[in-house]
Structure to design on (337 residues):
């Protein structure tokens, strides 16, 4: 299976290392022989028609260099050209998320589909801005489109619902979908420390961004909720349809009061027909959504199975490569390439 990696950051490098480390396992257990034939970022492209050798690939991933600095790379803004012209089965779109425009990922995905290439992405932006359009384009081009890694990192909630729970109608989705806010709320509860102090420490530890607004004001959770809603509830939802409140106003006293009543305060994204909402909610301790630290959790309400919950790591290059690789194996089984 010939692959193009677009974006060579945490996930591009993490996936590259996972593919190299699991080479034998993938061949023996899945019959899958992935070949990375191109890596491209906004600075340049490295193309090798025979597939970049694993050892070289791992060394490049560990070097942390931008693509233009890799030996043998072509320099320049040649992302679309590379996606279009390099012969490949699958494009993995792994560039930064922009939930307002969807770019640059949206353009990359359209170019890939129009060049008859299957697409796997972890990028929320294109899905939030243009889910229906991309779904329709994939169908009209006859290509497969997978995005398991865009919600919940390692948690395979989308494919779980679409495949193993396919006979069910999903009626409601509830999730703790942002690791940073969950980490902050957990620490506030454990230490009785105020929000600003815990946020500052989380930023120093690299657990929160310098501009933490996307996480703590609820937009990241809302983006993931929109993706889940579109793919599992079959509602054409947009970010503007979500009523959003973040966690800035939560105090350690409120968390303690909740805990004394057997509850935790979590930033919950909830969706059903006619309602999309992100807000801090009381969750009974011991229930699946009452996860601690940076864990994520999702509960689906279903007409047959009633309720299924799944928890796990919501981010991290190795953890998220589990979902990217799952999508890749799924395409291998579907397409036989
Ligand atoms: N990290 C996680 O655990 C995780 C989990 C789930 C989903 N995601 C999502 O997956 C995506 C990738 O995450 P990441 O952590 O790997 O991000 P990252 O470390 O920022 O890597 C993004 C890569 O894309 C490159 N890039 C930026 N603009 C580009 C452009 N116009 N054309 C081509 N390449 C471009 C970046 O190059 P430069 O370094 O030169 O800017 C970098 O190589 C994001 O959308 C993120 O939200 C991440």
């Amino acid at each position: 299976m010939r692959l193009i990696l677009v974006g060579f950051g945490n996930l591009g490098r993490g996936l590259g290392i996972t593919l190299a480390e699991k080479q034998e396992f993938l061949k023996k257990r899945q019959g899958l022989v992935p070949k990375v034939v191109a890596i491209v970022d906004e600075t340049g492209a490295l193309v090798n028609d025979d597939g970049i050798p694993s050892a070289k690939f791992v060394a490049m991933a560990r070097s942390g260099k931008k693509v233009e600095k890799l030996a043998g790379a072509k320099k320049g803004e040649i992302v679309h050209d590379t996606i279009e012209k390099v012969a490949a089965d699958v494009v993995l779109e792994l560039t930064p998320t922009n939930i307002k425009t969807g770019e640059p990922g949206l353009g990359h995905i359209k170019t890939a589909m129009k060049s008859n290439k299957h697409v796997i992405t972890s990028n929320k932006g294109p899905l939030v801005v243009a889910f229906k359009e991309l779904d329709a384009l994939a169908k009209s081009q006859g290509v497969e489109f997978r995005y398991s890694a865009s919600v919940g990192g390692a948690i395979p909630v989308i494919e779980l619902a679409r495949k193993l729970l396919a006979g069910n109608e999903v009626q409601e989705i509830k999730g703790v979908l942002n690791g940073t806010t969950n980490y902050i709320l957990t620490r506030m509860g454990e230490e009785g420390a105020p929000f600003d102090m815990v946020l500052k420490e989380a930023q120093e530890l690299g657990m929160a961004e310098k501009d933490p607004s996307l996480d703590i004001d609820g937009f990241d959770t809302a983006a993931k909720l929109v993706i889940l809603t579109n793919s599992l509830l079959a509602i054409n939802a947009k970010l503007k349809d979500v009523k959003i409140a973040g966690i800035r106003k939560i105090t350690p006293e409120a968390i303690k009061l909740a805990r004394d009543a057997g509850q935790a305060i979590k930033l919950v994204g909830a969706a059903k027909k006619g309602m999309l909402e992100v807000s801090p909610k009381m969750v009974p301790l011991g229930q699946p959504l009452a996860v601690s630290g940076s864990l994520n959790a999702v509960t689906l309400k279903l007409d047959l199975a009633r309720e299924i919950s799944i928890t796990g790591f919501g981010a991290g290059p190795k953890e998220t490569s589990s979902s990217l690789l799952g999508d890749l194996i799924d395409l291998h089984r579907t397409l036989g390439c």
Summary: Residues 317-335 form the longest helix (19 residues). The longest strand covers residues 263-272.
